[in-house]
Predict the 3D structure of the following.
Amino acid sequence: MPGNVTFCATLVDEWVRWGLTDAIVCPGSRSTPVAVALHEDGRVRVHVHHDERSGAFMALGLARATHRPVAVVATSGTATVEFHPAVVEADLDRVALVVLTADRPPRLRGIGAPQTIDQVGLYGSAVRAFVDAPVPDPADADSWRRLARSVWRSATGPAPGPVQLNLPFDEPLLDDRLPLPVADADDHVVVVPDDALTLPGPLPARGVIVAGGAIDDPAAVLDLAGRLGWPVIADPRSGCRVPDRPVIAHADALLRADGPHLRTEMVVRFGPLPASKVVNQWLAGLDVPHVHIDPRRALDDPHGVVTRRVHMDASAWVASVAAVVEPRLDDTWMTQWRSADDAVEAAIAADERGGGPTEPGVARAVVAAVPDGGSLVVSSSMPVRDVEWYGAARRGLVVHANRGANGIDGVISTAVGVALAGGPTALLIGDVAFLHDTNGLLGVDRRDVDLCIVVIDNDGGGIFSFLPQATMLDPETFEDLFGTPHGVDLGALAHAHGLPVLDAADDAAVGVAVAAALTTGGVHVVRVRTSRTTNVDDHERLNAAALAAARAAGWDSV
């Protein structure tokens, strides 16, 4: 009896009705029915990737950039295991994925059939739902669209994330296609946020807004901050890090010494925590009302300081409090923050070490060079910190980073996924993260994307040089266990994938290279060679200059 082809075509048709536009297909035999259904539908862009691990991260990047679920398909066996790192990241960062794992039929499980593993509940608690579908049978056709809707709703609910749909297919894998079950008139379910007006009381004069990711209307947040006279500590991913009076781009530098921030009377935080350890330690040490607004129902409170949680979009929460917020006439609090942040920016911009590129300078150059309307993907470890600490505020740039699990795997693939959403895209990545995901380069020059990959090559794990291990261990032991020089010619590796490579000699050259690459189009690699030892010195020098400038601007005055 035919069933596989019609079943899969029905799932795809229903998902398209609900907004599916893209799918990542990793080649394999058992997944043939669903791969063919996606390919033949014609309304779905199908992106083929040879590597399941990289393909899943590409789906993650595309879903994050488009704010729509992306389907990702694997054949049975260990191929499905390769999805796990991206599923974990999607879980923790609340990115909707429809994870389709093909499987053998139940009668072939557990008896030594080839390419068969236990895929039931494979990803554990990292998925919003797991469904082990029955072997397709036309007698069950009336339930197929309900199954598709259930999967989609689980992925896109109040706490969006990945859903695993395990699809057992019997042979023949391709069979006759029958007419699809008739689509019903089921409409989208609107999720109404709980909690409306959620203020703990009158708003004090000395409050601070912390803007993380997942902000649907950054302009509304900044407008509220302006009316309150409160500064906004703006994570690069927030959309709020623009040249605007309330926006503080260099909080990491300001909060390293005593200052007005110690007199903060209230915190309103949108979305996840920033990357800065300094900022997070300051938040942990405050004993004040702390309201956390996040539509994803994420906890994001490792220090237990949040006093009120609100499951709403930023725009909805701002609208709910706008009626009770009067413009503040006393600008003293805001002026202290604004003057100090401006002084820090001037000090960082004036830094001239000379003698080659600096990693903070490279971060600043990349942030500035991406054209308006473009995207920047930032790897975990040092790149995301350098962008947060030293990048200047600017408009017209969307910043993405895998900060759910904070891992360095799958970063190239994530950037390719973001680039597939359209628009010029830059990636700032370290050499170890680059090596972790070289399979993300497979076929990238044929994907019709504009992507400039800036790889900082310091021959090892640069972030460890900032940790106590660097001074507590003898140099040889530290290098063996933490520095871990790899000795790989990253330029030759990129050339093997047919990509042009440019070596940038200084910070300015990086900016020129990024701008030129994204203007030309296609995929380019810019390699920047730095020293791990010198990098520590560069950061210490910049932080000292920034703090001195802030103090000169009256930051530590009472």
Remarks:
- The longest helix spans residues 532-552.
- The first strand starts at residue 22 and ends at 25.
- The CA atoms of residues 117 and 185 lie 38 Å apart.
- The domain at 359-529 is CATH 3.40.50.970 (Rossmann fold).
